[in-house]
């Protein structure tokens, strides 16, 4: 049989670091936001139609062994032993610790969320106070210099952190978390340094007045906190603890990171249910009822923590942090009554949001590709790009308000008019007392306050139409050019800002026939644009409801989201999926592609198949580990151990390394059986934290030991999932994805052949790999025109 | 190899009808609420430690072929042909129809939900008006006679409908829907007659003053509506349409029924997001993102329909249906401020709810077992039982208020005091003007109004403690004895009533140290009891929030639910799971049991293995179909077709019947190949509606045809999922469950043997079957003490 296999990944010590752009045409590269330290970094990864095995071999590099989805890390004697030895107390401990960790994740994320809000409010508030002060003294140039100076300083600090300490902290982080939860183990994405930079970079970036949010970064932060806890701290920073061993498998870690992502959303929007739904709808690839419950617990903790802090700060002890530091646009005081006209308006808004959203995604993609060329040139270019964008943003936010006319303050008004402090709805800007500049109220505020102003009810006339158009256009463009620079940057806030703007415009247009408040139209506009870019439905809906605390708007929000998602989906995919694809993260969809129905499992098996005997020579194992990048090797029992050659199971590279490190050798070709328990305990084989496993360099095998034997049976997973070579590839893909496998054995259909045909890994199901093998498949037409079809 | 297999199910024409009690000790039987018409009905099913093949064979009877979870109904030439022939237009049609059907389900469920609310409000309102009228005239005996008479009349009507027309309509229906979505195809559960009885039985039952809700039945109603649409109407009632063919597979039907269940919750509680979450958390076994979106759409439609009707009825055109006909307890006007004391109160409430909930479940189980003996005796006994419970309920609701003292009306009150109409918070009962009877306010109201009274805020002193205790005790007991009688009966309302009662009690106790309103304590109490019985978390939380329209309570509700679920889970399982188990529905859990780790796939294979050749004699097929109840048969290619015997795939009974009916025979043992397309189209093989497939009796095979041959290759599923015989049973179970299989082939590990060892079906994974084979496994200790452990 010539079918061979390919199990990815050379040294999986640096789990990621090979990130590149997936683009068949120009082979341009997208400067990964991950560590540049790795050699492999410059290898484009998943490049189409380049038929070199090394390319293919790299692909699986980021794939984590998630065969443990079904909890049984390895179904063999050793681990049975482990289970048997687990006393009831230990299982109890395990369960209690799981919950304790959920609590810690909730507490941690809540704390960080609150801290970053306070920091942003204070830094940005101080900056705005300074400028307002200068403006009232008519020192216009000084005011601009102060604004631009502050912004550039903050931006440069954020960019420096990001470019020099943790490039993985740039961007939103949601695509990376999503990919991790799908089984793509990209180490720096969840590293402690990334966490640090994400928190402080996000505070600096948002304070610098960029059109970015802290919501996406909060999700990433939550996931990082969960990962740090799940790994039992960071060995690098000497923060470790012994509970570590309880969570040494992928499933538990993934569960914790799911909780972390949910906690992030909950902390960002004060939306605990929305957080759970976000984790469910957007982040997680596998889901269980038990996880729902734990996630829910985590977000509840976040909600309680935030509430406690807000009550503490209500007395004014948190500096410039007012009650509204955390975004919360309470519109529940407005009586919602809507008619048929409002339904039409909702559908119109949905359509606009869908179209604008898909254009937004398209442009973000293009800009990211351009930026990748710049960012690739080095850290200094990254920082310069950030500074350039910062200057542009400062120019917009200071320059454009000059175009707006001064408006006399409304006679009845709850807020101060003109505003006296840093925030407020009525910024005086250049106007004389008793007047305000509506565009300045939007531009020279924190983004959160700008959203609050746009969502504010009973303020129909207070933003003029040209102001809304101008603000929308600049936010839309700034949002596009800001995402992709080397700072932590969330997409939620720019999208909500732009959406709320056109929502208000539509509200004004429908003003005569609608009874809805313009502020509610702004909310619907934001929903439509969110739906158009992110393509979530239920979670966005719940997040918006929790933000605005008005359940009566629910049917309208649902309608808007449904329309905008439907419209946008006809053009392109969601922004997070798009970024994930751009970064070349090998995400496995839950469904099989239609062309897979016409291939069988053995059609996509590739690469050289390396197998071991049940009792193998040390030299052979070392050679195989050195010469291939495979992470899993089939073990075949041959006579005299069995009657005929038969597939014994599969061994993992990491487990082989443990045996080699521990020198579990014997002079003769015999089964050592239970002896292994004298040398190893089950926890020696449990999964190490990212980047912490035994490396090839750690081995010290003497020449005379090369001829000795290792009995692989105790560490062989004797129950690997297998498919017959003639199994439809579509069904094999579903099996692989649903069970969260890393390796799937392909066995021959007929007898009398070698007991294994090959191994399928995540990479083999990737569209790029299949199209490379079968270039005549047309993915767009998705027709079934290849000759092998009727096999 | 002696290992044999067992593929369940005799004639799957009556898909269910064999329902019995799963109880090893006494073999008592729980009278199923399903059709008594079936012969098989009296067979206890899943009886432990009775080693007769017929018993085993019955078990799979209710299992529907859900191998189509991965969309590929059968992975063979015929269906590839089908896919190829599907023009783009058809796929477009398919997608549009899916959405159209979701719309229809939403509209239908919304309409039915609203209709039943109006009906209940009018019938019960009329009854209560009559009694109030008689009471004010001091005709106390007449009033009781009127109450009891109305109640018994309504109850008897409901029971008659239920016992004679559709026994499957009794009870809540949620366990059956849950089982269906897990793959248990129980025909009468979703039949049109069940829908009819569910709607009208529920209206009559609730109007009869039983302590039951219409919420569970609404879920069932939604599922029935979806099923009716999915099957393309009912052939029996001459309501069919041709779109039928688009949804002739299990996956599409299951999707629609998921939407229906969500729509039911949405209609019952006006909680669209809660409905989606309910479907996700409690109902569905498989879930996709696309389904989330469609479910969301359906519930949005329901919400809009309900809103439109309520606006229509607001002008008073719906008789006694007031604004509050649909439960909606708006507490958003209350300012929520809570302190540490309230957190403690919430934890206390959670603990109480957990303990009371688990006792409730325990008692419901016991009462159901007793009732099953009564119900089994015949329809007349069912009706008598209903009448007895109805009389008892009437006695309680009329008799107990006499024990309460008259309370002077509060001086400042929004409601009328004493109440003048049918509903209201201050029932005069026997009291003189200016006074009211607080217990009568709870008993002599519809359940919805009673809940509204308990949830009402600013009414701390208006229900006295003895009243609350008495009402709680009676509702708790009545709730337990009412569930299980032959009327459609939801569990939500009794649980909410009882929970709200003790919530108020706790609220009074904490009154001095808490700033929370007693009405909010009632809400938390209801949450705790719901959590303690039903064990849902996120969906209950969202449903309660949508009901009460107050998001600020969220953290407290979450805390209460978490505590109550945790406490209750230490004692027993949720009430729906318990009922499902009692009914013997073979539900497959998402996780494998620990003892399964110590068994391998071939350990549980049982029953005679019947296989076919690739080209098989008609006589053999007929004989196998007649003599076994199997639904799937392995097809083995033998020389000369293949070099050595090899597993070709699996054929389904239903597909064989199509070939036999169509007389697709040939005189010689040859492959007929593509000829099959001249006789059949793909739609001939698509799954018929429940109970509508070809039956054995429909066949008319002549004697001379018995010797002819059928080429089975075109209808053989050539890519069945297989496991090696040494695969851990735990992993096999997860594969089976995750992919939603019906048949899983077990293949030999070593070569040179028959190509198939046996077939695993849902039944083989059931605990009862495994414990029958291995009685020494102790499910409670879950130790791993069997000798075969270290295979």
Automatic annotation (TrEMBL), chains A, B:
InterPro entries referenced in this protein's UniProt entry, alphabetically: CBS_dom, CBS_dom_sf, Cl-channel/antiporter, Cl-channel_core, Cl_channel_pln, ClC
Matches recorded under Pfam families: CBS, Voltage_CLC
Topology term for the membrane: Multi-pass membrane protein
GO CC annotation terms, alphabetical: chloride channel complex; plant-type vacuole membrane
Protein family per UniProt: Belongs to the chloride channel (TC 2.A.49) family.
Swiss-Prot/TrEMBL keywords: CBS domain, Chloride, Chloride channel, Ion channel, Ion transport, Membrane, Repeat, Transmembrane, Transmembrane helix, Transport, Voltage-gated channel
Protein name per Swiss-Prot or TrEMBL: Chloride channel protein
Residue ranges of the TM segments: 91-108, 143-169, 189-212, 256-279, 291-310, 343-363, 383-404, 468-485, 491-507, 519-545, 551-575
């Amino acid at each position: 049989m010539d079918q061979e296999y390919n199990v990815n990944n050379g040294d999986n010590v640096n789990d990621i670091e090979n990130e590149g752009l997936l683009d068949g045409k120009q082979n341009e590269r997208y400067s990964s936001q991950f560590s540049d330290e790795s050699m492999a970094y410059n290898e484009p990864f998943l490049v189409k139609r380049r038929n070199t095995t090394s390319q293919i071999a790299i692909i699986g590099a980021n794939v984590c062994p998630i065969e443990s989805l079904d909890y049984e890390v390895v179904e063999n004697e050793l681990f049975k032993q482990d289970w048997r030895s687990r006393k009831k107390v230990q299982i109890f401990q395990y369960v209690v610790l799981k919950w304790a960790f959920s609590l810690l994740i909730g507490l941690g994320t809540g704390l960080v969320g609150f801290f970053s809000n306070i920091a942003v409010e204070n830094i940005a508030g101080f900056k705005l106070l300074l400028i307002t002060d200068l403006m009232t003294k008519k020192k216009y140039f000084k005011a601009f210099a102060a604004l631009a100076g502050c912004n550039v300083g903050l931006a440069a600090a954020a960019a420096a952190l990001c470019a020099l300490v943790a490039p993985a902290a740039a961007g939103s982080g949601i695509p990376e978390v999503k990919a991790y939860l799908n089984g793509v183990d990209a180490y720096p994405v969840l590293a402690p340094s990334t966490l640090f930079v994400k928190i402080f970079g996000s505070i600096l970036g948002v304070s610098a007045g960029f059109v970015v949010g802290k919501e996406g970064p909060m999700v990433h932060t939550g996931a990082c906190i969960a990962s740090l806890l799940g790994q039992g701290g960071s060995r690098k920073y000497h923060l470790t603890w012994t509970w570590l061993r309880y969570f040494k498998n992928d499933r538990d870690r993934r569960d914790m990171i799911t909780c972390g992502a949910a906690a992030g959303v909950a902390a960002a929007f004060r939306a605990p249910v929305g957080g759970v739904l976000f984790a469910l709808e957007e982040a997680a690839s596998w889901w269980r009822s038990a996880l729902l419950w734990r996630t829910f617990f985590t977000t509840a903790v976040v909600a309680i923590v935030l509430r406690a802090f807000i009550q503490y700060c209500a007395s004014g002890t948190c500096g410039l942090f007012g009650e509204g530091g955390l975004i919360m646009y309470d519109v529940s005081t407005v009586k919602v009554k809507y008619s048929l006209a409002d339904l039409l308006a909702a559908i119109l808004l949905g359509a606009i949001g869908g179209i604008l959203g898909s254009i937004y995604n398209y442009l973000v993609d293009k800009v990211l590709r351009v930026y990748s060329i710049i960012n690739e040139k080095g850290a200094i270019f990254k920082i310069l790009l950030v500074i350039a964008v910062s200057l542009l943003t400062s120019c917009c936010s200071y320059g454009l308000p000059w175009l707006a006319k001064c408006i006399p303050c409304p006679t009845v008004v709850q807020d101060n008019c003109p505003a006296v402090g840093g925030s407020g709805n009525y910024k005086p800007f250049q106007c004389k007392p008793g007047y305000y500049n509506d565009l300045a109220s939007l531009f020279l505020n924190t983004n959160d306050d700008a959203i609050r102003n746009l969502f504010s009810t009973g303020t129909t006339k207070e933003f003029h139409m040209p102001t809304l158009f101008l603000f929308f256009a600049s936010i839309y463009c700034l949002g596009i050019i800001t995402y992709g620079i080397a700072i932590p940057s969330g997409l939620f806030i720019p999208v909500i800002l732009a959406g709320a703007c056109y929502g208000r415009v539509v509200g004004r247009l429908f003003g005569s026939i609608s009874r809805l408040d313009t502020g509610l139209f702004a909310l619907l506009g934001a929903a439509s644009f969110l739906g158009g870019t992110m393509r979530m439905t239920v979670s966005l809906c719940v997040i918006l409801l929790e933000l605005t605390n008005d359940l009566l708007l629910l049917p309208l929000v649902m309608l808007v989201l449904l329309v905008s998602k439907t419209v946008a989906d006809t053009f392109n995919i969601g922004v997070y999926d798009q970024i994930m694809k751009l970064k070349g993260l090998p995400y496995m969809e839950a469904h099989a592609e239609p062309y897979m129905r016409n291939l069988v499992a053995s059609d996509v098996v590739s690469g050289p198949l390396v197998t071991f005997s049940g009792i193998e020579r040390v030299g052979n194992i070392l050679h195989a580990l050195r010469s291939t990048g495979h992470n899993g090797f089939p073990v075949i029992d041959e006579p005299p151990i069995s009657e005929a050659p038969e597939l014994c199971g599969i061994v993992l590279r990491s487990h082989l390394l443990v045996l080699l490190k521990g020198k579990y050798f014997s002079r003769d070709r015999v089964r050592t059986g239970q002896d292994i328990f004298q040398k190893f305990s089950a926890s020696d084989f449990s999964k190490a934290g990212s980047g912490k496993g035994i490396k090839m360099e750690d081995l010290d095998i003497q020449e005379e030991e090369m001829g000795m034997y290792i009995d692989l049976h105790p560490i062989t997973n004797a129950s690997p999932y297998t498919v017959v070579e003639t199994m439809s590839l579509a069904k094999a893909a579903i099996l692989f994805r649903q069970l969260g496998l890393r390796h799937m054995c392909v066995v021959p259909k007929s007898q009398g052949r070698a007991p294994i045909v090959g191994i399928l890994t995540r990479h083999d199901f990737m569209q790029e790999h299949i199209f490379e093998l079968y270039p005549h498949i047309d993915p767009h037409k998705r027709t079934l025109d290849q000759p092998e079809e009727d096999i």
